[in-house]
Amino acid sequence: RPLRPGDKVIYESIDRGMQDLPAPDAAPRDLLDILLSARDQISREDIRHELFIFFLAGHETTALTLTWTLRELTRNPDVLAKLRAEIEQVVGDGEPTADHLNQLVYTGMVLKETLRMHAPVAGLSRQLTEPLTVDNVTLPVGTTCMVAIHRLHNDPT
Fold it and tell me: Contact at 8 Å (CB) between 67 and 111?
């Protein structure tokens, strides 16, 4: 079947990465290096799939986090005022840079609280590798357990 435009870009990145692999004893520079280091165990299509999922998941979760942050800031003008004050103090009239990130402590707190209140992932599941007892009920090895992130992060008890 013909390649879709997104596949073409990803396969071109894989090909460039293959031509510019770091030395075997060097640390990987990015996710592509990590995936390419496993190319003996996974196919080129598997590498494409992992990169595609990573890109989509990163894009969507970032957009959701920013949307929820803006919503919460409109509902909490005192938090918005404090956030603006911090940004003006740290960044001033210039453009924000990566060097400013460690100084934007309150901004980081606002983003983390947004993630707590509105987790970009609804839940996760794990398969037990050892028995787990909860409220006198023992779940055997192999049981799939689900965690509802929103409930966990917003339970008042």
Answer: no
- Per DSSP, the three-state class of 76 is coil
Amino acid at 50: E
Angstrom distance (rounded) from CA 104 to CA 13: 34
Please give the Cα distance from 77 to 73 (Å, whole number). 6
Residue type present at position 39: R
Sign, CA dihedral 77-83-89-92, equals negative
Tokens of 58: 């990163």
Average predicted confidence (pLDDT) for the chain? 89
Among positive and negative, which fits the CA dihedral 65, 118, 51, 99? positive
pLDDT digits (tens, 9 = 90+) for 32-51: 888 888 888 888 888 888 88
